[in-house]
Amino acid sequence: MGPQTRAAAGQPANAAPPTTRRPSRRVRLARAVVAAIVLAGAALFVLRRAGNEGDVSATFDRLHWHWLLISVGAEACSISMLSWLQQRLLRVGGLPVTVRDLLPVTMASNAVAQSLPAGSLFAEGYAFRQYQRLGASRALGIWAALSAGALAAAALAGVAVAGAAVVGSGLRLQLLPALTFILAGALVAAALFRRAPLLGALLVRLLRRVERRLPERLCRPLRSAEKSTRQMEGFRPSWGLWLACWAAAALNWGLDAVVLVMGLLTVGQPVPWRGVLLCYAAAQLLTELPITPGGLGLVEGGLVEVLTRFHVPASGATAATLMYRAVSYWLLLLVGWVAVSWLTVRNRQADRAAAAARAAPA
């Protein structure tokens, strides 16, 4: 799971709520065709890469169920860390919410993100509306959603750097410089959300340079973003809180990586300890590709491939990947849509109660 797939990674600030326009019917049809082709190709790849189907089936006959239970617990803790992160950000704006208030929002927004191609954008809009239901102002809701995304992106980059640092010397020399550069950029981007006035000043400077060269329709979003940052000037978390939020985001990813380790142990396969974080980071990047919902098919095929590169048998890599996705994707998807249904019913009841209160005589 990834915040909002563990929070959408670093979407730019803008004045409007983080929502998206519904694509045309032709675009939706084209996306469906592409997704079907990708899913079919991924399924064929996994089947061919897995080797003997009997070996995969035999792997599932020898499951170690206690590791599976631990993976479910790790995923639950991962969700809780993400909810804690959002709670701390909302409290910066004076909203007295608890982690318990945000757990269903986190699970529901994750289900939205995992159900659509490029679902993280839709998930941010959904989370924003739920923040407002809890009493957040428009500016606070936008700032909290985008800050959580920026912190999540920086934390995932940190996980990738940690993975490159412990992998074999050959890959380390190839990957570490580029990933360190990406981490530095992600940390700078996350730091800008801590100081909205500084972000606004940068946007103003950019706008002054480009507004004479670009058409009005392209400059309008920059003006809108600059106005939004003015409304966020009061949100100034301390460095200690910001680092704690980044650590919570990193722990959120780390606990999800534990689910991958547990998937390997559940099917009795060796864990490539020096490469597991790199495998996990690669899988999360595939999740964010806007082709299939939640990277469906892409993650399965990609994760099987990278695990075999770290000397996990093909049949075992296939079984472990399926176990990992069963917990981190399918289980969370099911629980998340239950949360969506519960929030929908609760919100409708609240709306009816409010309408009845307004209609009642004074």
Q: Can you give a write-up of this model?
A:
The protein is an all-alpha fold and 362 residues long. It is built from 13 helices and no strands. The chain has helices at 25-49, 53-60, 65-92, 99-115, 119-133, 138-166, 169-194, 196-210, 216-231, 239-266, 276-287, 298-309, 314-359. Helix 5 (119-133) crosses helix 6 (138-166), helix 6 runs antiparallel to helix 7 (169-194) and helix 12 (298-309) packs antiparallel against helix 13 (314-359). It is globular and about 70 Å long. Mean pLDDT is 79; it is low at 7-20.
Q: Could you say which overall geometry the principal axes of the C-alpha atoms support?
A: globular
Largest beta-sheet characterization? none
Structural class label: mainly alpha
Order of helices and strands: HHHHHHHHHHHHH
Terminal-residue CA separation: 49 Å
- Tally of helical runs: 13
Oligomeric organization of the protein chains: single chain
What integer is the average pLDDT? 79
Strand content: under 5%
Helix content: over 70%
- In angstroms, what is the radius of gyration? 22 Å
The low-confidence runs, each spanning 5 or more residues with pLDDT under 50, are 7-20
Quick one: how many beta strands? Answer: 0
